[in-house]
Design goal:
Number of helices: 9
Low-confidence stretches: 2-6
Mean pLDDT: 96
Number of strands: 6
InterPro entries: UDG_fam1, Ura-DNA_Glyclase_AS, Uracil-DNA_glycosylase-like, Uracil-DNA_glycosylase-like_sf
Radius of gyration: 17 Å
Distance between the termini: 28 Å
Keywords: Cytoplasm, DNA damage, DNA repair, Glycosidase, Hydrolase
Family: Belongs to the uracil-DNA glycosylase (UDG) superfamily. UNG family.
Strand order of the largest sheet: 3-2-5-6
Structural class: alpha/beta
Catalytic activity: Hydrolyzes single-stranded DNA or mismatched double-stranded DNA and polynucleotides, releasing free uracil
GO molecular function, one term: uracil DNA N-glycosylase activity
């Protein structure tokens, strides 16, 4: 936690710094220390806990995508929701995200799943829970991360104007239910998982709707097409 905290980007540190003094964060730090001391492998590595915030400063946020918790396979998670490191097989949900982008914008699917290109343009790729034990999905839920990421969403809601919130699935929709729809655009659809994508994620056209909204409010649009190589 300490290593990751030091790396927190300045604009986020200004609005979230007090969170690190709260008891839940102390409890979370203790939990992570005990897990590591017990020999458990935690993803992502400590320096990448806050990678989404490091890559997307608060004043540059234009789109928020909410995930649930990191991928729990070796080599996958690196701090951005839905994203995997270069060379790692593209996860099924991201395959479906690419399919919807192709249908919506005519963008051919990328050959990799590394999404830093989006993050560097102002797409906050935020998981609700920022760590996970290897091979144990959702193993760090309820340990305090949710309270921290609620504070992240509140900061965007209150300090930014005309942000697009892409809320895929009931979990994300519930977590960001308080977002002010008078100030921001809230787009809702089923999760892109193969279990639910055919129930309305396909055809949601969130990517074109996001850019149309940003353009209408004189904000720079997102180049959703990933570079040829990561």
């Amino acid at each position: 936690m300490a290593e990751a905290e030091v790396r927190l980007e300045d604009s986020w540190k200004a609005v979230l710094g007090e969170e690190f003094d709260r008891s839940y964060m102390s409890d979370l730090k203790g939990f992570l220390q005990r897990e590591k001391a017990a020999g458990k492998t935690i993803f992502p590595k400590g320096a990448e806990y806050f990678r989404a915030l490091d890559l997307t400063p608060l004043d540059e946020v234009r789109v928020v995508v909410l995930g649930q918790d990191p991928y729990h396979g070796a080599g996958q998670a690196h701090g951005l929701c839905f994203s995997v490191r270069p060379g790692v097989r593209i996860p099924p949900s991201l395959v479906n995200i690419y399919k919807e982008m192709q249908s919506d914008l005519g963008i051919p699917p990328a050959r990799y799943g590394f999404l830093e290109h989006w993050a560097r343009q102002g797409v906050l790729l935020l998981n609700s829970v920022l760590t996970v034990e290897e091979a144990r999905a959702a193993s760090h839920q309820g340990q305090g991360w949710e309270q921290f990421t609620d504070a992240v969403i509140r900061a965007v809601n209150e300090d930014c104007e005309h942000v697009v919130f892409m809320l895929w699935g009931s979990y994300a929709q519930k977590k960001a239910a308080f977002v002010d729809r008078g100030r921001h655009l809230v787009l809702r659809a089923p999760h892109p998982s193969p279990l639910s994508a055919h129930n309305g994620f396909f055809g949601c056209r969130h990517f074109s709707q996001a850019n149309d909204y940003l353009l209408a409010h004189e904000r720079k649009t997102i180049d959703w097409q990933l570079p040829e190589t990561p």
